[in-house]
Amino acid sequence: MPGGYAALMTQAQAKQAGQQVLPLIEYLARVARRAYDNCQPPGCLRPRHFIALSVLAEHGPLSQQALSEALSLDPSNVVGLLNELEDRGLVARQRDPADRRRHIVSLSAAGETELATSDGELIRIEDDLLAALSPAERAQLRDLLTRAVGATVTGSEALGPGSCEPAPWQAGPDGKAGPDGKAGPSC
Predict the structure, then answer these.
(1) What are phi and psi of 17, to 5 degrees?
(2) 3-state SS, residue 140
(3) Which of 66, 120, 127, 149 has the most CB atoms around it within 10 Å of its CB?
(4) Cα angle at 72 between 155 and 113, to 5 degrees?
(5) What b/e readout covers 20-42, taking b as 16+ CB neighbours within 10 angstroms?
(6) Which parts of 2-134 fold into alpha helices (H)?
(7) What is the C-alpha to C-alpha distance for residues 184 and 161, in angstroms, rounded to an integer?
(8) Is residue 183 part of a domain?
(9) pLDDT, mean of each 10-residue run, the chain (187 residues)
(10) Which of 59, 57, 32, 56 has its CA nearest to residue 46?
């Protein structure tokens, strides 16, 4: 929608909104979600599916509890999410041999393929959504959002005690250290 949010705002609304960015972030998220919802499989994972598979791809098999914490989701919501992914053959859940009460979740080969295909579609949607920004501005936006997300939860907290792996939003180009060069507070 050309003009979209900015075109609909009156001068008074803009003044009242001040410098708030959450309405802008929410608007962009809705536009992106709508574009992604119009995408046809393969390569069209829902955002929550994409994020869950990305965490598993980055960190390998995790307990359901650790995945729940990494995603900042209630454990009962993670069960529903994993049921959807398992029904599509994108993840596998197995009992932990060391503790039969726990489930270990791993990414399947089909999940890896779907994640790679979806990543390409996500790049296309993001390119359309952020076409008004230069590559340098996109990099700056990503850095700022990464810092904001990192301030809400750290990778080592999200993955549980003793984990030194960064969360996906904290990982640098090498996949190991965050943008500040550190893997986490306990490492």
Answers:
(1) -65, -25
(2) helix
(3) 66
(4) 75
(5) eeeeeeeeeeebbeebbeebeee
(6) 4-8, 11-17, 22-37, 47-59, 64-71, 75-87, 109-129
(7) 11
(8) no
(9) 56 62 90 81 78 94 93 92 95 91 94 90 89 96 89 53 43 44 38
(10) 32
Bridge partners, 168 (sequence order): none
pTM of the predicted structure, to 2 decimals: 0.63
Q: How far is CA 84 from the centre of its chain?
A: 17
Task: Tell me the residue range of the domain where 62 lies.
Answer: 20-159
Residue 7's CB is within 10 A of a number of other CB atoms, namely 8
Angle (CA) 148-1-130 rounded to 5° is 40
Q: Does the N-terminal peptide bond of residue 97 adopt cis geometry, omega within 30 degrees of 0? A: no
Q: Let me know if residue 122 belongs to a domain.
A: yes
Return all residues near 25 (Cβ < 8 A) that are at least 6 apart: none
Q: What is the pLDDT of residue 137?
A: 96
Kindly report the CATH number assigned to the domain that includes residue 61. Answer: 1.10.10.10
Task: Look at residues 128, 153, 157, 130 and name the one whose alpha carbon lies nearest to residue 141.
Answer: 130
Tally of domains in the chain: 1
User: Whole-angstrom Cα distance, residue 84 to residue 98?
Assistant: 26
95 occurs within a structural domain: yes
Quote the pLDDT of residue 8: 59
Residue 153, pLDDT score = 58
Identity of the residue numbered 131 = A
